C-alpha cells in the first residue's frame, strides 16, 4: 500500500488516500496519470514527488530509482539554514519503484464530482 497525497491547486486543500501503486511503477516525477486508478474518475493527476519507505525524498533531477548521496544547496531534500551552505544528503531518484511509500500528486484536470464526494471525506 502506498499513501497518495493529492493536492488541489484551486482550493489549496490536500487529501490522503492509501492504494496499491503497481500501475505507476516506472513513471517519473512530472508524468500524468488517470485519476480513476485511485478512485477519482474524470480527474487527471500529475506526480510532483514522494518519499521512500525510509523517508528519503524523491528528487526530480536525479534519474533512476536508486538512492544516492548528492551535494545539495537547496531544493527537495535539503533546506540550508544560512545562505550558501551546501551539504551532502541521501536522496532518491525520480522514478517510482516498489520502495516508494508516499506519492505526492496534484490535480491537473477536474471531473464532474468534487473530490470530497468521491473519496468519502467531508
Total strands: the figure is 7
From the alpha-carbon coordinates, what is the Rg to the nearest angstrom? 15 Å
- How helical, in percent, are the residues? under 10%
Strand order across the largest sheet:
2-1-7-4-3
Structural category is mainly beta
Termini separation: 23 Å
Ranges where pLDDT stays below 50 over 5 or more residues in a row are none
Biggest sheet architecture: 5 strands, mixed
DSSP summary: helix tally: 1
Coarse morphology: globular
Count the domains. Answer: 1
Percentage beta strand: 35-45%
Mean pLDDT: 93
Order of helices and strands: EEEEEEEH
Features:
122 residues, mainly beta, five-stranded mixed beta sheet, two-stranded antiparallel ribbon
What does this molecule look like?
- This protein has one helix spanning 115-119, and strands at 2-8, 13-19, 32-34, 44-52, 67-72, 87-92, 100-109.
- It is mainly β and 122 residues long.
- The strands form 2 sheets. The protein has a 5-stranded mixed sheet, with no helix packed on it.
Briefly say what this structure is:
The chain has 122 residues and is mainly beta.
Protein topology:
Blueprint: E1 2-8, E2 13-19, E3 32-34, E4 44-52, E5 67-72, E6 87-92, E7 100-109, H1 115-119
Parallel strand pairs: 1-7
Antiparallel strand pairs: 1-2, 3-4, 4-7, 5-6
